C-alpha cells in the first residue's frame, strides 16, 4: 500500500496584523456614524431624531469622501496599491475611485431620502403596522417617521465601500451581506402602496438569498481548487494550473464551477440577464429614493466587485470566462432593450434601462484590459449621476397634489407645458441614457465600446450599438410625450421641489453636461499610462500586512 500522503500543517499566525487605520478611515467613519445612529434611535426622543440622524448621515458621508480624497494622496507612488490585514482588504486607486463615487452618489441619495413635504416623507409612518389598520392610521395622524432609515443607509454604504475593495472572497461575501441586508428592509418601507412595497422587499430578499448561496458555493469550489480564498493566491494557482491538492492540473472542473457560481452571485447584483427578473419589481415597489440609491450606488459597488474578481483571481483564466460573459452581455443588451419598449410604468422602464446599461458595462469587462477597466469606471460614475436625477424627477410628478407618484407613462403627457424646467431636466437625463453627444452617456458608451473593439470584441460592440438604437426609441418616446402630446384631464400634477430634491436634480444635470463636455479630467486619470500591464491598476493583494 502506498504511504499516505499528508499535507504540511498550516502555519499558525501568532502575531496580529498591523492594520493601517488611516487607509481604512473612510469606511470607519461611515461605520461609526451608523452605530451612533442606532444609539440615537434607542436614546433620543422621537421628535428630535430626524434632524440628528440626517445631520449625522450627511456629515459622515461628506467626511468619508474628504478622507477618500486624502487617502488617494497617501497611496505609495509607483505601486498598484496596498494590502491590509493579510490582504483581506485592497486599497488601490480603483477601489478608492469606486468608493468615492459611491459616497458622492450616496450623499445625493440621502438628499432624496431626507425630503419631507408637509411633514410627510417617502417612507411608512410605522413599518410594523399592518397596512390599512387602525394602528397605521394612528401613526399617520401622529406624524410618525421612520428615522431608522438613515443608519440603514449608512450600513448599506459601508458594504458598498468594502465590496469592490475586498482582497479575498470571504471579505467580499461579508461586504455583500452588509450591503444587501439593509436594502432588503429599505425596499419594504414605502409610504404608499405598502403591500406592493412589501412584496418587492420579500422578492428581493428571497432571490438575493439564493444568489448569495450560489456565491458562497462558488467560493467553496474555488477554495477547493486553489487551497485559498485570497485573490493573489487564487490567481497564482490558476496561473500554475492548480493549487496544492491538484499539482497535475486535475482540479480544473472545480475552477470552472467556481467561476460560474461566483459569476451568478455577482451578475445578480448588477442585474444582468438572466438574473435580472428581480429588478423591475423591486425598483417599482421600493420607495423611489431607495430605488435611486440602488440604481446608482449598488450598481457601482457590484460592478467594482465583478471587475476585481474577474481581473485579479480569475484574470489568468480569461479565456475560460470570456465566452460566458459574451453570452450574458448580448442577452442583457438585446432582451432588456426589447422588453423595455413594451413598458408603460416609468419606474419599470428605468429598471429595464438599468439592465441594458449593465450590458454595456459588461462589454468593458469582456475586454479584460486596463482600458476596459477605465471605461467601466467612467461609465458607472456618469450613469450614477444621471439615474439619481431621473428618479428625483419621478418623485415630483403625482397623480394629484397629495396623491402617489404618477408612474403610468400616459400621465406624463404634457409635462413639458405645465413644468418645462422639470421636463427639460428629465429630457437631459434621457438623452444621456440614449448616448447622445455632449452628454456623459455618449462619452461612457464610447469608452466602453472602444475598449471592447481594441480587445477584438467587435461583434459585441455591434450588438451594443443596435441595442442603443432600440433604447433611444423609448427614451425619445417619453420626450415626445412630455413636450408634444396633449395633457389628459388637466395634465400631470407636479409638486414643488424641495431644497433637497431640487439640489439632487441640479447636481445630476450639471454632472451629465460636465462629464459629457469635459470628460478629460476624469478619463485622463483613469486610463493607465502606456506600458502598464493588464489589470496592474487593480491590486492583487499579497499575503503581507500593513
Question: Gist?
Answer:
By secondary structure, this protein is mainly α. Helices cover 66% and strands 2% of the residues.
What does this structure look like?
- The chain has 546 residues and is mainly α.
- It is 66% helix and 2% strand.
- It contains 20 helices and 4 strands.
- It has helices at 25-43, 46-74, 93-114, 134-142, 149-162, 169-186, 194-226, 231-240, 252-270, 278-285, 288-311, 318-341, 346-367, 370-394, 415-418, 420-434, 440-454, 458-484, 499-517, 520-526; strands spanning 81-84, 89-92, 397-398, 493-494.
- The chain has a two-stranded antiparallel ribbon with strand order 1-2. It has a two-stranded antiparallel ribbon with strand order 3-4.
- Strand 1 (81-84) and strand 2 (89-92) form a beta hairpin.
- Residues 1-8, 529-537 and 539-546 have low confidence and may be disordered.
Strand order of the largest sheet: 1-2
Low-confidence stretches: 1-8, 529-537, 539-546
State mean pLDDT (0 to 100 scale). Answer: 85
Order of SSEs: HHEEHHHHHHHHHHHHEHHHHEHH
Q: What sort of overall outline do the alpha carbons produce when their principal axes are compared?
A: globular
What Rg do the Cα atoms give?
Answer: 23 Å
- Note the main sheet: 2 strands, antiparallel
Output the structural class.
mainly alpha
Query: How much β-strand is present in the residues?
Result: under 5%
Total helix count?
20
Cα distance spanning the termini? 47 Å
Task: Summarize the amount of helix as a percent range.
Answer: 55-70%
Strand segment count: 4
Multimer state: single chain
Amino acid at each position: 500500500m502506498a504511504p499516505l500522503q499528508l499535507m504540511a500543517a498550516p502555519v499558525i499566525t501568532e502575531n496580529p496584523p498591523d492594520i493601517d487605520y488611516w487607509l481604512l478611515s473612510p469606511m470607519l467613519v461611515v461605520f461609526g456614524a451608523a452605530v451612533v445612529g442606532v444609539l440615537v434611535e434607542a436614546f433620543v426622543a422621537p421628535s428630535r431624531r430626524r434632524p440628528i440622524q440626517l445631520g449625522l448621515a450627511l456629515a459622515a458621508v461628506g467626511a468619508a469622501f474628504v478622507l477618500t480624497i486624502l487617502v488617494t494622496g497617501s497611496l505609495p507612488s509607483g505601486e498598484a496599491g496596498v494590502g491590509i490585514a493579510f490582504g483581506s482588504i485592497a486599497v488601490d486607486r480603483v477601489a478608492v475611485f469606486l468608493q468615492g463615487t459611491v459616497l458622492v452618489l450616496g450623499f445625493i441619495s440621502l438628499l432624496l431620502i431626507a425630503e419631507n413635504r408637509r411633514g410627510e416623507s417617502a417612507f411608512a409612518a410605522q413599518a410594523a403596522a399592518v397596512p390599512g389598520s387602525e394602528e397605521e392610521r394612528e401613526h399617520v395622524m401622529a406624524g410618525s417617521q421612520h428615522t431608522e432609515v438613515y443608519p440603514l443607509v449608512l450600513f448599506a454604504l459601508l458594504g458598498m465601500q468594502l465590496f469592490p475593495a475586498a482582497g479575498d472572497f470571504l471579505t467580499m461575501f461579508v461586504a455583500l451581506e452588509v450591503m444587501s441586508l439593509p436594502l432588503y428592509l429599505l425596499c419594504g418601507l414605502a409610504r404608499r402602496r405598502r403591500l406592493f412595497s412589501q412584496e418587492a422587499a420579500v422578492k428581493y430578499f428571497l432571490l438575493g438569498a439564493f444568489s448569495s448561496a450560489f456565491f458562497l458555493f462558488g467560493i467553496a469550489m474555488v477554495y477547493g481548487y486553489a487551497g485559498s480564498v485570497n485573490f493573489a493566491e487564487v490567481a497564482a494557482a490558476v496561473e500554475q494550473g492548480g493549487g496544492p491538492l491538484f499539482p497535475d492540473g486535475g482540479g480544473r472542473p472545480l475552477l470552472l464551477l467556481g467561476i460560474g457560481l461566483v459569476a451568478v452571485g455577482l451578475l445578480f447584483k448588477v442585474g444582468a440577464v438572466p438574473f435580472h427578473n428581480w429588478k423591475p419589481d423591486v425598483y417599482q415597489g421600493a420607495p423611489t429614493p431607495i430605488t435611486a440609491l440602488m440604481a446608482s450606488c449598488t450598481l457601482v459597488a457590484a460592478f467594482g466587485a465583478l471587475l476585481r474578481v474577474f481581473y485579479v483571481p480569475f484574470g489568468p483564466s480569461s479565456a475560460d470566462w470570456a465566452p460566458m460573459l459574451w453570452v450574458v452581455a448580448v442577452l442583457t443588451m438585446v432582451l432588456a432593450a426589447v422588453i423595455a419598449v413594451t413598458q408603460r410604468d416609468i419606474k419599470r422602464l428605468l429598471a429595464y434601462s438599468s439592465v441594458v446599461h449593465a450590458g454595456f458595462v459588461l462589454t468593458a469587462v469582456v475586454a479584460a484590459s486596463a482600458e476596459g477597466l477605465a471605461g467601466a469606471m467612467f461609465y458607472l460614475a456618469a450613469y450614477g449621476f444621471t439615474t439619481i436625477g431621473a428618479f428625483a424627477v419621478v418623485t415630483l410628478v403625482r397623480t394629484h397634489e397629495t396623491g402617489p407618484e404618477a408612474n403610468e407613462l400616459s400621465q406624463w403627457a404634457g409635462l413639458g407645458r405645465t413644468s418645462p424646467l422639470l421636463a427639460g431636466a428629465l429630457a437631459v437625463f434621457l438623452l444621456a441614457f440614449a448616448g447622445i453627444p455632449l452628454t456623459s452617456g455618449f462619452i461612457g458608451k464610447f469608452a466602453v465600446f472602444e475598449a471592447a473593439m481594441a480587445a477584438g470584441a467587435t461583434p459585441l460592440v455591434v450588438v451594443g450599438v443596435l441595442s442603443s438604437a432600440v433604447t433611444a426609441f423609448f427614451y425619445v418616446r417619453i420626450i415626445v410625450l412630455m413636450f408634444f402630446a396633449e395633457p389628459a384631464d388637466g395634465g400631470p400634477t407636479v409638486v414643488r421641489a424641495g431644497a433637497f430634491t431640487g439640489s439632487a436634480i441640479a447636481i445630476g444635470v450639471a454632472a451629465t453636461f460636465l462629464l459629457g463636455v469635459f470628460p478629460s479630467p476624469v478619463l485622463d486619470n483613469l486610463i493607465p499610462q502606456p506600458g502598464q500591464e493588464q489589470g496592474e491598476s487593480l491590486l492583487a493583494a499579497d499575503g503581507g500586512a500593513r
